[in-house]
Amino acid sequence: MAAVAASTSTAATAVLMHRLPTTKSTHFSALPYLPPRFSAPAFSTSFKHSSELRRSFLLQIKASSSDETSTPVDANELFTDLKEKWDAVENKSTVLLYGGGAIVAVWLASIVVGAINSVPLLPKIMELIGLGYTGWFVYRYLLFKSSRKELATDIEAIKKKIAGTAE
């Protein structure tokens, strides 16, 4: 058993060494060439210099926010707003049913996508279909100004239909 392990180890080493690029050095190793280590004083000064550069770099990136541009989100205000909206809902069971149905639909969709992903060639075909549809959508709706306006009016119509303010 030991002889078999030694022979396979030697064969694997021979194959590995055969694939390595040939160099003039007689030192064979699977590790890349590393430069010699610096002496302790040179390393410590380069480390100090490096840490000073990092510190100055971090100081340059440091950003601050002004009170004018951002407003802090108050958790109590958020919860009271959500509670008011929940109390305004008349059919709470329907909302819960739709929410549960959405969670189940997402779960089933992830199962279907996982099954499609396990078929060997199908994921690449689906990627090509997605790229083709994306190209068509950009050409149809985003490339020209008139089609962008058409897309914006379609989106506004859908928003009004969902919000219930359709004419």
Please describe what this structure looks like.
72% of the residues lie in helices and 0% in strands. With 167 residues, the protein is an all-alpha fold. It is a multi-pass membrane protein. Pfam families: CAAD. This is CURVATURE THYLAKOID 1A, chloroplastic-like. The chain crosses the membrane at residues 95-119, 125-143.
Distance N to C terminus: 85 Å
Query: What Rg do the Cα atoms give?
Result: 32 Å
Order of helices and strands: HHHHHH
Beta-strand content? under 5%
Low-confidence stretches: 1-20
The secondary-structure class comes to: mainly alpha
Dominant shape:
extended
Mean pLDDT: 75
**Biggest beta sheet summary:** none
Task: Give the count of helical stretches.
Answer: 6
Pfam families: CAAD
Organism: Olea europaea subsp. europaea
Subcellular location: Membrane
Membrane topology: Multi-pass membrane protein
Q: Can you describe this structure in just a few lines?
A:
By secondary structure, the protein is an all-alpha fold. Helix content is 72%, strand content 0%.
Descriptive tags:
single chain, 167 residues, mainly alpha, 6 helices, membrane, CURT1, CURVATURE THYLAKOID 1A, chloroplastic-like
